[in-house]
Amino acid sequence: MDRWTGRVAVVTGASSGIGAAVVKALANAGMIVIGLARRVERVEELRQQLSEQAAQRLHAIRCDVTREEDIVAAFDQIEQHYGGVDVLINNAGIARGGINLFTPGNADPLRQVLDTNVMGVVLCSREAFQSMKRRSVDGHIVQVNSVVGHTVPAFASFNIYPASKFAVTALTESMRHELRIEGTRIKVTSISPGLVRTEAVPSELKTGQTPILEPEDIADAVLYVLGTPPGVQVHELTIRPVGEMM
After folding, report:
1. Strand order in the sheet with 187-193
2. pTM for the full model?
3. Per-residue pLDDT at 108 exceeds 70
4. 11 domain residue, yes or no
5. Of 245 and 236, more confident
6. Where in the sequence is the domain holding 122, given as residue range(s)?
7. Helices 68-82 and 120-134 sit at what angle, rounded to 10 degrees?
8. Is the pLDDT of residue 232 over 90?
9. Which one from 75, 158, 161, 166 is the annotated catalytic residue?
10. Where are the coiled-coil regions (predicted)?
11. Dist. CA 60–CA 43, nearest whole Å
12. Using CA atoms, how far apart are residues 193 and 218, in angstroms rounded to an integer?
């Protein structure tokens, strides 16, 4: 991680769960971290969990990744105040329960999932790439994907969520090719966790004997892929808790 010391990392969905863990890990590793979130006050509260030096490296910008104007404004602000983006962690993601693909009137919640999980990734990656390209930076784009972006579990209805994560898997490969064709050495990585203890997971799955990962496990994986040598690209990293059935 030494080569990233003092460089700028942007983390979407930074207010809780995996995003919050990644924000803290990167700030502790010496990076300047910009946390994007709708609940920006929760990102600012994370400073209380950091050392004084690391807390000074953490900044928050309000951003709804379903709104292109929010994304463009946030990355413009990062360019003006912090010099640009070196690392992007596309972590923002949502799922919508209580419906299936055949539920009447389901268009709005399903569209929210696609706008967040797919278009948010595309648009944030676009803005980060333009910043890296302008400054000739060999940056890194990391997608927080899911094991359901590779196979669809048969024991429950996940409605459109797996489709959105399959899209992230395809986007990662498409980005790898586009970055190669552009002649850059910018890396792109998909990290696909199994079940993680976050606010999005029902409480009954976070107690008892259900195997589950901690957000810090995923933050450790982010540090690992960022810490690889410049000529090494971890394209896909799958992380499961021991004993998981999915």
Report:
1. 58-62, 32-37, 8-12, 87-90, 140-144, 187-193, 236-239
2. 0.96
3. yes
4. yes
5. 236
6. 2-239
7. 30
8. yes
9. 161
10. none
11. 6
12. 7
| 161 in catalytic set | yes
Residue type, 113: V
Q: What are phi and psi of 111, to 5 degrees?
A: -65, -35
Per-residue pLDDT tens digits for 162-209 = 999 999 999 999 999 999 999 999 999 999 999 999 877 766 665 777
Q: CA–CA separation, 230 vs 172, rounded Å? A: 18
Q: At what angle do helices 161-181 and 120-134 cross, to 10 degrees?
A: 20
In the chain, how many domains are there? 1
User: How many percent of the chain have pLDDT more than 90?
Assistant: 90
Token pair listed for 117: 């999980």
Q: How far apart are CA 227 and CA 117, in angstroms?
A: 26
Q: What three-state secondary structure class fits 65?
A: coil
pLDDT tens digits along 26-65? 999 999 999 999 999 999 999 999 999 999 999 999 999 9
Strand segments, DSSP code E, in the chain are: 8-12, 32-37, 58-62, 87-90, 140-144, 187-193, 236-239
- 245 occurs within a structural domain: no
Q: What is the CATH number of the domain that holds 149?
A: 3.40.50.720
Per the domain annotation, does 244 fall within a domain? Answer: no
Q: In angstroms, rounded to a whole number, what is the distance separating the alpha carbons of residues 236 and 225? A: 10
The pLDDT value recorded for residue 205 is 63
- Measured between alpha carbons, how far is 65 from 47 in angstroms, rounded to an integer? 23
User: Which of these, 89, 79, 96, lies nearest to 25 by C-alpha position?
Assistant: 89
The two structure tokens encoding residue 225: 């892929």
